[in-house]
């Protein structure tokens, strides 16, 4: 993956979420534990989404790059976010895998995995 495909994938994921009724609250939210690519809500859930982008010739799907260690960092960062931003919405952790064309400028496929992992995996 080149450095420009990450922001391209995050924009594509944000556009997809918006088109599907989500409201984007934050992009690239940072804490001392890590970063969450997209924080969004849909009236029922507050979604903490990790976006992974790969080019079409990659041997492994992008969603497989979200390791247990990365999940733990996202969960800790989400806890800090929820402490600072009170909500009645149920938290959910999603992974959005994006495959781009060889040039990396068009989306070949987008796989939105809802509830990809949960807090209870770590606490």
Overview of the structural elements:
The protein is of the alpha+beta class and 123 residues long. The protein has one domain (5-121): Trna Endonuclease, Chain: A, domain 1 (3-Layer(aba) Sandwich), CATH 3.40.1350.10. Helices cover 26% and strands 39% of the residues. It has a 5-stranded mixed beta sheet with strand order 1-2-3-4-5, with helices on both faces. A hairpin with a 3-residue loop joins β2 (35-41) and β3. The longest helix is centred in the middle third of the chain and has 17 residues, at 68-84. It is globular, with a radius of gyration of 14 Å. Belongs to the UPF0102 family.
What integer value in Å does the Rg equal?
A: 14 Å
For the record, the CATH class is: Alpha Beta
Tell me the overall shape.
globular
What is the residue-mean pLDDT, rounded to a whole number? Answer: 89
Main sheet: strand order: 1-2-3-4-5
Assembly type of the chains comes to single chain
Helix residue percentage: 25-40%
CATH topology heading: Trna Endonuclease, Chain: A, domain 1
CATH architecture annotation = 3-Layer(aba) Sandwich
**Beta-strand segment tally:** 5
Strand content range: 35-45%
Largest pleated sheet: 5 strands, mixed
- Written as H for each helix and E for each strand, in order along the chain, the element string is HEEEHEE
Task: State the low-pLDDT regions, or none.
Answer: none
**How many domains comprise the coordinates?**
1
| Structural class designation | alpha+beta
User: Number of helix segments?
Assistant: 2
The separation of the N and C termini measures: 32 Å
